[in-house]
Design a protein that fits this description.
Protein name: DJ-1/PfpI family protein
Helix content: 25-40%
CATH class: Alpha Beta
Distance between the termini: 36 Å
Radius of gyration: 16 Å
Shape: globular
Strand content: 15-25%
Order of helices and strands: EHEEEEEHHEHEEEEHHH
CATH architecture: 3-Layer(aba) Sandwich
CATH topology: Rossmann fold
Number of helices: 7
C-alpha cells in the first residue's frame, strides 16, 4: 500500500506525523510526504520542517491519501496544484482521508458533496460551505472517504483505516508497537468536557 501525505505551508505537524507513524509501522505499507515540489515545508508553529521527498506529479496514483489540516488550510483551498492533485488522486485511491481541517481541502476538491464529515470543533460549520454535512465525531467513514476531527484524532483515524484496509490484528499490533494508550491528564479535549472559559482560551491559540 502506497500512502501519500501532501504538505503545504502551515500544516499541523501531528496531523501528518500521527497517521504517518501508524501507517509506516504497517507491514507492506510505504508512506511518502509529497508537495508541489520536493523539499522542506514549514508547519504552522513556524519551527518544524518536514521534507517532501516527491512531487505531486511523481506520486499521482497512491492507494491512500491523508490530507492534514493546519492554520494554512484556508489559504490553500484555492491552490489548484494541491486541490487538483487531491481530486485526481482520489479517482485511483482505495482510501481518501483527512485530519482536522484537511477535510476542507477534500471539500474544495468536490469530494464531500452530500456526505457527512468532521473536522476541528472550531471550524465544523465551514464544512457546509464545501457541500458536506458536519458531524461532531472523532472519525467519520463515508465509503472510501474517511475524515477525522482535530489533530490527535488522526491517530485514531489511521488505526481505524488500518483495521479496515488490512485487519484488526495488524491495527492492534501497531497500536501496541507505538504504545498508543492515551490517558489525558485533563478532561478538556472537547468543548463539551472542557471547563468554562477553556474554549475561548483555546481559540486564541489557533487563530
Amino acid at each position: 500500500m502506497q500512502v501519500a501525505i501532501p504538505l503545504y505551508p502551515r500544516f499541523t505537524a501531528l496531523d501528518a506525523v500521527g497517521p504517518y507513524t501508524v501507517l509506516a509501522f504497517a507491514p507492506g505499507w510505504t508512506v511518502t510526504f509529497v508537495a508541489e515540489q520536493a523539499g522542506p515545508v514549514t508547519d504552522d508553529r513556524g519551527s518544524l520542517n518536514l521534507a517532501a521527498t516527491a512531487s505531486y506529479a511523481e506520486l499521482d496514483r497512491p492507494d491512500v491519501i491523508v490530507v492534514p489540516g493546519g492554520t494554512g488550510t484556508l489559504d490553500v483551498m484555492g491552490d489548484e496544484a494541491l486541490v487538483g492533485w487531491i481530486r485526481q488522486a482520489h479517482e485511483h485511491t482505495r482510501w481518501t482521508t483527512s485530519v482536522c481541517t484537511g477535510s476542507l481541502l477534500l471539500g474544495a476538491a468536490g469530494l464531500l458533496d452530500g456526505l457527512t464529515a468532521t473536522t476541528h470543533w472550531a471550524l465544523l460549520d465551514l464544512l457546509r460551505q464545501v457541500g458536506a454535512e458536519p458531524v461532531s465525531e472523532r472519525v467519520v467513514t463515508q465509503g472510501k472517504i474517511v475524515t477525522a476531527a482535530g489533530v490527535s484524532a488522526g491517530i485514531d483515524m489511521a488505526l481505524s483505516l488500518l483495521a479496515q484496509a488490512a485487519d484488526v490484528e495488524t491495527a492492534q499490533a501497531v497500536q501496541l508497537a507505538i504504545e498508543y494508550d492515551p490517558h489525558p491528564p485533563f478532561q478538556a479535549g472537547t468543548p463539551r468536557t472542557a471547563p468554562e472559559g477553556t474554549p475561548e482560551r483555546a481559540l486564541k491559540l489557533i487563530t
